[in-house]
Amino acid sequence: MMGSDYSAIGRMLLLLQLLPGILAWGKEGHYAICKIAEGLLNEEAAGAVKVLLPEYADGELAAVCSWADEIRFHYHWSGPLHYIDTPDFRCNYKYCRDCHDSSGRKDRCVTGAVYNYSEQLITYQDTVSKLKYNLTEALLFLSHFIGDVHQPLHVGFTGDEGGNTILVHWYRRKSNLHHVWDTMIIESALKTFYNSDLSVMIQAIQANISDGWSSDISSWENCASGYAACPNPYASESISLACKFAYRNATSGSILEDDYFLSRWPVVEKRLAQGGIRLAATLNRIFTYQPAVSDV
Ligand SMILES: [Zn+2]
Fold first, then answer.
1. I need a labelling partner for 152 at 20 to 30 A (CA). Which of 75, 128, 130, 145 fits?
2. Is 294 exposed, middle or buried (0-12, 13-18, 19+ CB in 10 A)?
3. Would the keyword Protease turn up in this protein's UniProt record (predicted)?
C-alpha cells in the first residue's frame, strides 16, 4: 500500500512539474525573481542561503522557488498563504481586514506568511531557538511568497478569486485572467522579445534595474527600521495595479490580444524586478539582523 501511495504522489508531483504555472506566478516568474535576488545578496545572506538550500537545488535558490506550489496539495494548509482576497471593487488592502483564510483564521494570507517565515529565519543566528523550525522550508516559502505578493492578482477581489473565475481568451487560447497574469503574459513576452530564452529575459530586467530603475531601488528596498520584512506596501501596490491594469478591459468572455499584452508586459516586468530586489533586501536584513541589547 505504502509503495503505491508514494508512487501516486510521485506521479502527481511529476504532473505538476509538467504543467508549469498552474497555481501562482508561473515557474518562469518565480525563477526570474529568485535569480535577480541571488545576484544581490550580501555575504551573510548568500552564506546562509547556501547552508539552508536543499542539496538538489545545487546551490541555486532560483531552482527551488516554485517548491511551494509543487507541495501545495501535499501541504494542504499552505494553500491560503499564496494570496490575499480583498473586498470587491474597493481596490485597497488592509492587513487587519484582509489577512485571513476563508474560514476567518487571522494571519493566514500571503503577507502574514512573509512575516511568519521572516521571523523564523531570523532565528538562524540562534542555535537554540532555530531548532524549533525547519529553516530550509522557511527559506523556500519566503522566497516564493515575496514573489506571489508582487503578482497583482494575488491581491485581487474575493468575488472572482483573484481573476480565477474570469474566463478569457489569451489570443486563441482559453484561459482565465489569473492565469494570464501568472503565466501567459510572461510566456508571450519570452516568445516575442527574448527568443524564448528565460536567461535573456532576466538579463534584460537586470539591465533595466541598473539603468532605468536605478534611482527607484532604494525606495523599493525601504522597510521601517527594526523590521526585516515589509510586505504590506507590496500588497497595496498589487491591488492597485490589479484595478488599474489587470481587471481593466478584461471581463468574462474578453479576447485579450496585442493591445492588452503590450500595455501590461511593462507592468509585469517591473513587478518581477521589484520582487527580486525586495527578496534580496529582505534576506540581507534577516541574515545580518542583530538583536537589540534589550531583546537578548
Ligand atoms: Zn504561489
1. 75
2. exposed
3. no
Q: Per residue in 179-219, pLDDT tens?
A: 999 999 999 999 999 999 999 999 999 999 999 999 999 99
Q: Which domain holds residue 94?
A: 2-290
Q: Confirm whether 295 is domain-assigned.
A: no
Question: 84 by DSSP, 3-state: which?
Answer: strand
Q: How far is the CA of 105 from the centre of ligand 1 (A)?
A: 19
CA of 206 to the centre of ligand 1 (A): 23
Domain membership flag for residue 296: no
CB neighbour list of residue 147: distance below 8 Å, 6 or more residues apart: 24, 25, 29, 30, 33, 34, 65, 275, 279
Residue 15 has pLDDT above 50, yes or no: no
Residue 170 lies in a domain: yes
pLDDT of 243-293, one tens digit each?
Answer: 999 999 999 999 999 999 999 999 999 999 999 999 999 999 999 976 655
pTM here is 0.90
Ligand 1 centroid distance, CA of 290 (Å): 30
Domain with residue 111: its CATH number is 1.10.575.10
pLDDT at residue 24 tops 90: no
The alpha carbon of 109 and the centre of ligand 1 are apart by a number of angstroms equal to 11
Number of domains in the chain: 1
